[in-house]
Design goal:
By secondary structure, the chain is of the alpha+beta class. Helix content is about 35%, strand content about 20%.
Length: about 120
């Protein structure tokens, strides 16, 4: 009986620590990709940055430079949407990581004059 309880407990821990967070990330990525629209600035999984010119069901067309170079990409290749508002968690984390520095007193010169 104890073995069954331990196995069920391990499966529950495995689910809550690995499977559930991964499903949330996939769902958020799918939502972001389905919300893409003309004019959004994106970065692909290959590191290509550009602005969306046209959106279809399965693909997007982006303009990558001022020379009007256009590329057609699959929607699944979009990694981030730079035009979308950042989540609140990321903003709070940045504020915590970058504490305000107090102004230091002016440094005294260490040079000594020799006679």
């Amino acid at each position: 009986m104890e073995q069954i309880i331990m196995i069920v407990l391990m499966v529950a821990i495995f689910y809550f620590l690995l499977i559930r967070p991964e499903n949330k990330r996939k769902k958020a990525a799918d939502q972001m990709r389905s919300a893409l629209k003309k004019g959004d600035k994106i970065v692909t999984i290959g590191g290509i940055m550009g602005t969306i010119v046209r959106v279809t069901e399965e693909s997007i067309v982006i303009e990558t430079s001022e020379d009007r170079v256009r590329m057609e990409l699959a929607k699944w290749a979009v990694q981030t949407n730079a035009s979308a508002p950042q989540p609140e968690k990321a903003k709070k984390k940045e504020a915590i990581e970058e504490p305000k520095e107090e102004e230091a007193a002016p440094e005294e010169s260490a040079e000594e004059t020799k006679d």
